[in-house]
Amino acid sequence: MPWNPEETLSRQDLAKLQSERLQKVCERVYARVPFYTKKFDEKGIKPGDIKNIQDVTKLPFTKKSDLRDNYPYGLFAEPLDNIVRIHASSGTTGKPTVVAYNRNDINLWAEVMARTFTCAGVTNKDVVQNAYGYGLFTGGLGAHYGAERVGASVIPISGGNTQKQIMLLQDFGSTALTCTPSFALYIYDVMCEMKISLDTIKLRVGLFGAEPWTDEMRREVEERFRIKAIDIYGLSEVIGPGVSSECIEAQNGLHLNEHHFYPEIINPETGDPLPYGSEGELVVTSMSREAMPLIRYRTGDITSLNPEKCKCGRTLVRMKRVRGRADDMLIIRGVNVFPSQVESVLLRSEEVAPHYIIEVNRKGRLDEINVNVEVTPKFMEAMATKVLSTDLKAFVQEEEELIHLKREIQKNVKDIIGVSTEVTLRPPNTIQRSEGKAKRVLDNRPK
Ligand code: DLL
């Protein structure tokens, strides 16, 4: 059963609700945020021109750079007296992007996250180990409030501290784990190193997100932990986690809370709206936010939308697993490459582990990719046995096997992404593990 009956509204009733909320948010930002007054005026549009949800396309976009240009408080639609929380996303360069919440926003956040937990089958019977970072990052507190709202027992352990995570998984009998998928795999690796059996933990489900991951990666996590792995999505500019989430019944697309966050897909180059089913950039209008609503925020995330009703009964539009961010896309010799495409190819190979980093270098005028991937401990052990053998034949065979594996990965990557890559096989535990968002690309090209 969904958390809120709104999740099963007919699409007609939903559109009515969305139209009302869009009108309201336009009035709010036009009256209160000088940035939007100016933007609307430049487009020659007044809030009264917005009659229904289809009119959203008349509105101006908001970009990440607009948040930076108005740093720190310029986009707030409320005086600081009413702001009860400020988060910020780190960003790789320069100032962070700042987001604000009033009491109603915090309440809305707990509500949408309660939907996310319910989607994942989490109830008051569960013990939720929350290993998303607490702090300026929205993952920790967002998951915390939602898990409390469904009545689960929340363990606010935050990110990092891997051995302690394992101890609590065992001692507190956590049934749900919330963290990035890459951190989940790290926890698993450390469990293996410590020779801890899965039988000593009660984990049943994980709510993983905050970074792109593939279906192949999901399979790895599910098989290793013997749990269901649910993809959850969000971004601080819109609210944090709680924008969309898969349901445990279908695990087929992420139900997007579109009565609060109106989604569109656009062509990232032209800004033109694209129909359901087409892949493009997700744009979101946070209609119910009060402290800092954003109009047509360009998320940079590449996905598509499917309006068909899900077998779980929810009527909300489903968002396909995010393929990556438009700005993470590498353009290599004219070909667009997403790290997630490389990941899905790598994980098809049984001999390699789900730990990789893609290096991009410039040789002369050409860009080259080097895919560094770890082989599994099992593969490594088999190799080591041969190296130790005094039998020359076995030794030669080992070298051939390595070359064969490397060539096979090279070929598979080329088949999928269309460019040749170098592949470097690395021994287990040589690629840096992540306790938060994993870094998958090392771009060494001169800026
Ligand atoms: O990562 C919010 C969050 C926390 C989501 C915990 C899920 C779980 P930011 O730090 O602002 O917020 O980063 C947002 O992360 O635009 C995507 O590029 C990426 N992202 C988030 N969830 C997913 C996901 C949080 N499930 C940015 N799949 C977004 C792929 C994701 N990418």
Describe the structure.
This protein has 447 residues and is an alpha/beta fold. It folds into 2 domains: 1-323, 3-Layer(aba) Sandwich (Rossmann fold); 330-443, ANL, C-terminal domain (GMP Synthetase, Chain A, domain 3). The protein has 11 helices and 22 strands. The chain has helices spanning 11-32, 34-43, 64-69, 103-119, 138-149, 162-171, 181-193, 215-225, 339-346, 377-388, 392-417; strands at 85-89, 97-101, 127-130, 153-155, 176-179, 205-209, 228-235, 240-246, 254-256, 261-266, 273-274, 280-286, 297-303, 305-306, 318-319, 324-325, 330-332, 335-337, 352-363, 366-375, 422-426, 441-443. The chain has a 9-stranded mixed β-sheet with strand order 4-3-5-6-7-8-9-15-14, sandwiched between helices. The termini are far apart. 5'-O-[hydroxy(phenylacetyl)phosphoryl]adenosine (DLL) binds at residues 89, 132, 137-139, 209-212, 231-236, 240-241, 299, 301, 322, 325.
